[in-house]
Design goal:
By secondary structure, this protein is an alpha/beta fold. The termini are far apart. This is CBS domain protein.
């Protein structure tokens, strides 16, 4: 029988007095613009595990996780990892939680993620991977503008025709990739991004 055991690789120790630097971010071959493939600005959940939260978690917990992970949204999932919705900073801070608490007749501190999330079947718009694969960044920005949202999920289908969540487009990430300044207002963001596409 052939020997299938793995042999250890050569190893050494870092030398005293010799600096060891953290890597610089590798420069992409070409900058992102409106004509770049859309997949270049999609957060790919096969490469990066999405950050999730339970629907019964507090808004304080959601805000804490978003701050720690430097993200502006969390996916809401159950124990079977089925998507239930998406919760954003806009849903956990400011006017929206106050309005929801008033409607429900509770204090804002009593709200949980499920009270303010964008529910999967009611309000979540998605793009399909087969369409995204052939699209350009400009197509994605136009779609986000049409939907009036800073986020859009991307799905594929498995053999049983279930939806498989495979990524998300975030306007904030598109801004970063295109070298545009971050802005707080969605309308302002759209006008910045769209105007840049015309140049």
């Amino acid at each position: 029988m052939p020997d299938t055991r793995f042999k250890p690789l050569p190893w050494t120790r870092l030398k005293r007095g010799v600096p060891c630097y953290l890597p610089r971010r590798a420069a992409t071959s070409t900058p992102v613009d409106a004509h770049s493939p859309a997949l270049r600005v999609m957060t790919d959940f096969q490469r990066m595990t999405p950050i999730t939260i339970a629907r019964d978690a507090s808004l304080d917990d959601a805000n804490r996780i978003m701050a720690l992970c430097h993200v502006h949204y969390l996916l809401v999932a159950d124990e079977q990892r089925q998507l239930q919705g998406i919760v954003t900073e806009a849903g956990t801070k400011g006017h929206r939680p106050l309005a929801v608490a008033h409607t429900m007749g509770v204090r804002p501190s009593e709200l949980v993620v499920g009270d303010v999330m964008i529910k999967q079947h009611d309000d979540v718009e998605v793009m399909h991977l087969k369409d995204v694969s052939l699209a350009r960044v400009g197509n994605v920005v136009a779609t986000l503008k049409e939907l009036g949202t800073p986020y859009c999920l991307v799905v594929d289908h498995d053999e049983e025709d279930h939806h498989i969540l495979c990524g998300i487009f975030s306007l904030a990430k598109i801004e970063r990739e295109m070298g545009l300044a971050q802005s707080a207002e969605i309308a302002q963001t759209f006008s910045q991004v769209v105007s840049s596409l015309d140049h």
